[in-house]
Design a protein that fits this description.
There is one protein chain. It contains nine helices and eight strands. With 276 residues, the chain is an alpha/beta fold. Helix 5 (121-136) packs antiparallel against helix 6 (161-172), helix 6 packs across helix 9 (257-268) and helix 7 crosses helix 8 (228-244).
Length: 276
């Protein structure tokens, strides 16, 4: 079955993070379409909008279908220019703001960039502090400070600990450390000594041996480290360790970093530290 080709525009007068996240979430519910994505952040002048209008019309002519345009534009003049293009516009503020105004009995301030701006300065510095903590305690570094962590991810090499920690810090303000389980730990079924006093903070990441083999092959092709047999041994050993010491764990084989992070927070009772 040939996929339909369509173009989608994400328009914003600031970074475009919000509109792309919301629009992408909607489009993932539709199969059989090959999307060409165009991001247009900082669309804050009418002349810029007119140039984008031309691009949209060209895309409509090329595709034979009018593009979808997702918007969080706050300037009504700019939005009106875009609406004149040969497209279907979905403006998130226009869709929801009036109803929220009616419920709160006050007008919205029409100020761009508030959702990712610097005005939440305490939240911003909390995010920076969390990211700094993650970077300073990656891969078992500085274990003497593990007591300050909100959570400590443990798992064998290439099980996704570092990217998950970074996401937890960036998106949730969580101080996440991680510790790699290595071959030196395998001979005995014991926790590494540096983890004994922080057992309540531990959370394990595991995955299928086949996926671990594939990931390691990209890093060190055809090495003993990447062999399927070695991956099978390590996964079996770490899962036995998690069970023995009652360490909560998650199989990450088929889920995204976003899902991994949200699941960890939910299961460990951690709360988002940002946007307070």
């Amino acid at each position: 079955m040939t996929k339909q080709k369509r173009t989608v525009y994400y328009l914003s007068d600031r970074t475009g993070i919000t509109v792309e996240t919301l629009g992408h979430s909607l489009l993932t519910q539709f199969d059989g379409i090959e999307w060409e994505t165009v991001n247009v952040p900082f669309l804050d002048e009418v002349e810029k909008a007119k140039a984008v209008l031309i691009q949209i019309n060209q895309a409509a002519k090329r595709d034979g279908h009018r593009p979808l345009v997702f918007s969080t534009l706050l300037n009504p003049e700019i939005l009106e220019v875009i609406k004149q293009a040969d497209c279907r516009t979905f403006d998130f503020f226009e869709t929801f703001i009036q109803s929220v105004e009616e419920e709160l009995h006050r007008p919205f301030v029409r100020m761009a960039g508030r959702s990712h701006g610097f005005q939440h300065h305490l939240s911003y510095f909390k995010r920076i502090a969390a990211i700094n903590y993650v970077l300073a305690h990656d891969d078992g570094v500085n274990p003497k400070n593990f007591a300050e962590a909100d959570i400590i991810l443990v798992g064998v090499s290439r099980s996704g600990k570092t990217p998950t920690c970074l996401y937890l810090g960036l998106q949730y303000g969580i101080a996440a450390a991680n510790y790699p389980l290595t071959q030196e730990d395998f001979p005995v079924m014991q926790l590494p000594k540096v983890l004994e006093n922080v057992r309540s903070k531990l959370f394990g990441l595991t995955l299928s041996a086949a996926q671990l083999h594939s990931i390691r092959q990209e890093r060190r092709p055809n090495s003993p480290y990447a062999s399927l047999a070695q991956c099978q041994r390590e996964i079996q050993w770490q899962e036995s360790l998690f069970h023995l010491f009652d360490i909560p764990c998650l199989d990450t084989s088929r889920i995204s970093i976003e899902e991994i992070s949200a699941t960890i927070l939910n299961r460990c009772g951690l709360k988002r530290q940002l946007y307070g």
